């Protein structure tokens, strides 16, 4: 059976206008966000309902056409990019953008997978609730992709990752069967919780078409501070003390190195209030008591030594402090390329990681630049290295050596090489090098059971290629 026959049948199924084949139409789906991977799909399909997705999967099995699920195409590791064979069908889920149910009394909502994260936040707000996942790409990333990558973001410290926020899933399996576990239950001991197979699988086990997600009371009070401290150990000591004092009212604990703030100042000038060895963005939130919460944070900070500090006095000032943190990745991109790492270690091990990795990199690449920032509250750092050679020539020729140095330290400290961005195409061989072989074998066994023909997102880490 030919590709032309498949595309004709697909067009009959979902409509010709939703089967993109012209070069200018498919180009946005072919290149990953970091412009590292360029694929060439057979076509791009944009189904509009779960039933169409299920029929599409059955059709792909009959014609042996690989499927590459794609949400907002914001992956930083090529997880949603097709290969260059011209055989795979990209399945974009943006038309699955309906709100199925909002149950404010149960603190849950059920949405289709193509709803953007920003829209999901808005839906929750309209019900006087909070959906706490927050990412820089929230205007374009989609709920299905957030689940497929187990997205983390800026509020994991209090609310957890997408795995913690998901109550139920609807998934089209590779053979077209539909697993419907859309449920608002918080407790269910009737067997294995199958949704966890698909969260974090990066589209290699099925196509997530809808989800039931947790909602929370909207915070009525927030206290936010940008504070400079003398060293990383002090930062982590503060994290423990803040948890002891404020418990789950501590929503965010971000840290940025002096080099990060210096770079921000280079581009943003006086928007950066000070530069310290380490700068912390701290936010508390509560259901009420704005003045009491602010006063409690001020009193707590007054008892500690700091290099400098700013406490937001208005919502505008709060947003301005947040903007500094959110601008970090884009500002670094303007400076030039870097070898990026999305590592995670126990929060208590962050100072040791920074010291050991920094020393090893300086010995291997004297004068290299390291930008370290991220979600210290959950142990996730974005650790980016540049200028390994004079004038940064051939930076990526050093990528393997840099990664080996960084990952050796990470795993010595019982960490992970992928805390929130996933594996995709970028880190497949590193996963082979560091992941427990039995764990990887078990995951690939599940892949064989659910996708025996290997048609779901081939060429990624579960394929063993």
TrEMBL record:
Per the UniProt entry, what are the Gene Ontology biological process annotations, in alphabetical order?
Answer: respiratory electron transport chain
Could you tell me which Gene3D superfamilies the record lists for this protein?
3.30.465.10, 3.30.70.2190, 3.30.70.2740, Uridine Diphospho-n-acetylenolpyruvylglucosamine Reductase, domain 2, Vanillyl-alcohol Oxidase, Chain A, domain 4
Q: Which cofactor does it need?
A: FAD
The record's Pfam families line, in alphabetical order, gives:
FAD-oxidase_C (PF02913), FAD_binding_4 (PF01565)
Looking up InterPro entries in the UniProt record yields: FAD-bd_oxidored_4_C, FAD-bd_PCMH, FAD-bd_PCMH-like_sf, FAD-bd_PCMH_sub1, FAD-bd_PCMH_sub2, FAD-linked_Oxase-like_C, FAD-oxidored/transferase_4, Oxid_FAD_bind_N
- Origin species: Paludibacterium purpuratum
PROSITE patterns xrefs: FAD_PCMH
Question: What keywords would UniProt list here?
Answer: FAD, Flavoprotein
Q: Where are the transmembrane segments?
A: none
Q: Which family does it belong to?
A: Belongs to the FAD-binding oxidoreductase/transferase type 4 family.
What does the record give under GO molecular function? Answer: catalytic activity; FAD binding
Q: Which residues form the FAD-binding PCMH-type domain?
A: 37-218
The name this protein carries in UniProt is FAD/FMN-containing dehydrogenase
């Amino acid at each position: 059976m030919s590709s032309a026959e498949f595309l004709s049948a697909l067009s009959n199924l979902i409509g010709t206008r939703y089967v993109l084949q012209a070069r200018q139409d498919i180009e946005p789906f072919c290149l990953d966000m970091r412009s590292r991977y360029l694929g060439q799909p057979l076509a791009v399909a944009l189904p509009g309902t779960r039933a169409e997705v299920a029929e599409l999967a059955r059709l792909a099995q009959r014609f042996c056409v690989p499927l590459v699920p794609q949400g907002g195409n914001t992956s930083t590791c090529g997880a949603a990019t097709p290969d260059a064979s011209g055989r795979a069908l990209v399945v974009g889920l943006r038309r699955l953008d309906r709100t199925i149910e909002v149950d404010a009394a149960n603190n849950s909502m059920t949405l289709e997978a193509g709803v953007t994260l920003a829209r999901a936040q808005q839906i929750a707000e309209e019900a006087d609730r909070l959906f706490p996942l927050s990412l820089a790409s929230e205007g374009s990333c989609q709920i299905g992709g957030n689940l497929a990558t187990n997205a983390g973001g800026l509020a994991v410290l209090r609310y957890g990752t997408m795995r913690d926020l998901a109550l139920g899933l609807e998934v089209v399996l590779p053979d077209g069967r539909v697993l419907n576990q859309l449920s608002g239950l918080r407790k269910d001991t009737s067997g294995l919780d199958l949704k966890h197979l698909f969260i974090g699988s990066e589209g290699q086990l099925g196509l997530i078409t809808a989800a039931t997600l947790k909602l929370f009371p909207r915070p009525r009070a927030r206290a936010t501070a940008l504070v400079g401290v003398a060293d990383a150990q002090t930062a982590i000591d503060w994290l423990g003390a803040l948890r002891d004092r404020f418990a789950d009212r501590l929503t965010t604990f971000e840290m940025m190195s002096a080099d990060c703030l210096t770079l921000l100042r280079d581009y943003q000038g006086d928007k950066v209030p000070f530069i310290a060895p380490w700068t912390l963005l701290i936010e508390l939130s509560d259901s009420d008591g704005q003045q009491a919460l602010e006063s409690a944070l001020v009193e707590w900070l007054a008892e500690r030594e700091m290099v400098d500090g700013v406490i937001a006095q208005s919502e505008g000032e709060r947003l301005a402090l947040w903007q500094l943190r959110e601008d970090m990745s884009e500002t670094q991109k303007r400076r030039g390329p870097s070898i990026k790492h999305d590592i995670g270690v126990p929060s208590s091990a962050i100072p040791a990681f920074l010291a050991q990795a920094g020393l090893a990199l300086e010995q291997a690449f004297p004068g290299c630049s390291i930008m370290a920032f991220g979600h210290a509250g959950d142990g996730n750092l974005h650790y980016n290295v540049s200028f390994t050679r004079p004038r940064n020539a051939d930076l990526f020729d050093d990528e393997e050596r840099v990664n080996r140095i960084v990952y050796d330290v990470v795993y010595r400290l019982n960490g992970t090489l992928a805390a929130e961005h996933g594996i995709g195409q970028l880190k497949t061989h590193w996963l082979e090098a560091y992941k427990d072989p039995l764990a990887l074998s078990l995951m690939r066994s599940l892949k064989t059971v659910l996708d025996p023909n290997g048609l779901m997102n081939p060429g990624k880490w579960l394929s063993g290629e």
